[in-house]
Amino acid sequence: MTHFYRTGAAIVLLSVLTTGCAEDDPYRKTKIGAAIGAAIGAGAGAAIDKNNRARGAAIGGAVGILTGGGVGLYMDKQKKAIEEKLAKELKTHDVELKKLPDNTIEVDLKSEASFPSGSSEVKASFGEALAKLGGVITEYDSTAVHIIGHTDNQGTTAYNQQLSQARALAVAAKLTSAGVNQQRVLTEGRGESQPKTSNATAEGRSNNRRVEIYLKPVVEGQEQAAFAPPQ
Asked: Sorting pLDDT into bands at 50, 70 and 90, what band is 67?
């Protein structure tokens, strides 16, 4: 389950609030940031509690805004920066990296490299990799950061759900300790529900144990899409 729930009303609210933010408006970023916060806070507040409205506003103030024409270049530069910082981990396939058609960057963390078996405590040997990744994400602040934990099908469904969420939170903690504003980060556990491959073999189960990080660009006029959970 994600930290936030959004409603259709929140999206309508966002479109209304962002209307009329001229390119040369000196308060443009503040207005759009407030609109993001209002939209997210409206949906979250309706589903969870009133305090999420305040957190929604904080999220709006924590992110930068991209214009449509510059999104691809911005995300390409961010991907290149990650490639440079995590060259060793990419070479050993402890981390996999790709850019999706919608300009989202997906960073996949191999479970064997990042967590001991059955544990949600990040391996000390992998902490440096997350610190380097966190440094890049901090620099590129016009993205929402979605962290999703997955498991294989060994153990009960309830246990796997809890473990996947705990691992997502553990990765989030490492990134925020490296400087990422926690208001940009959303975590979710999906347990065993989304295997990449068959759980019938040890190799398949290994591929299914993973944490995925999605860096979604916050684009002017499409801000709510950045905070929608990845599919």
From this structure: confident
Strand order in the sheet with 210-217: 95-99, 105-110, 210-217, 143-150, 185-189
Sign of CA dihedral 110, 165, 168, 61: positive
Q: Which CATH number fits domain 69-226: 3.90.1860.10, 2.40.30.40, 3.30.420.150, 3.30.1330.60?
A: 3.30.1330.60
Percent of the chain with pLDDT over 70: 74
Domain locations in the chain as residue ranges: 8-62, 69-226
pTM over 0.85: no
- 21's CB contacts (< 8 A; 6+ apart) are 28, 31, 32, 220
pLDDT band at 26 (very low <50, low <70, confident <90, very high): very low
Report yes or no: 148 and 212 within 8 Å, Cβ to Cβ: yes
